[in-house]
Amino acid sequence: MKYTEEISNKLNELLIKNYDAEKGYLNAIDNVDSKRLEMFFKRRASERSEFAKELRTEILQYGEIPEDSGSFKGAMHRNWMSLKSAFSSNNEETILEEAIKGEEASLDVYNDLIKERNLPPSIDALLLKHKNAIQAAINSEKVQEELIS
């Protein structure tokens, strides 16, 4: 496998995670009543859309083809969130808990890729920027969770 293809494969994995996260947040908007939570989820979805655009640009710069949709696993997680919220007595708290789990899974993928030392500096910087934003979102989601529980 060529070096550029290997990098693109790793970036595509992150791209799919970001598609999944964006769709998850858009799904969460439909399952909450709180305008504050709705706006919070809209901001997170917009952020993840921007991350996806940046990753697509990097992949294209290496002459590879970016993925164009999320994963089956992501779709299953969103369906689980919808089902769980339908049967939960405090669905907003449940949705926020699931969002935190999804963000923590994304953070793990970013951390694993950042540990690799064979990435160009521009990609390292991009991944670090995304990772820090995801960590800030997790911290913010935990605060939101405490406020509604």
UniProtKB/TrEMBL annotation:
**InterPro entries from the entry?**
CHP02284 (IPR011971), DUF2383 (IPR019052), Ferritin-like (IPR012347), Ferritin-like_SF (IPR009078), UCP029477 (IPR016920)
Q: Which residues are in the DUF2383 domain?
A: 7-116
Q: The organism sits in which domain of life?
A: Bacteria
Output the NCBIfam families linked to this UniProt entry: PA2169 family four-helix-bundle protein
Question: What is the recorded name of this protein?
Answer: DUF2383 domain-containing protein
What is the protein's species of origin? Winogradskyella psychrotolerans RS-3
Q: Output the lineage of the source organism.
A: Bacteria, Pseudomonadati, Bacteroidota, Flavobacteriia, Flavobacteriales
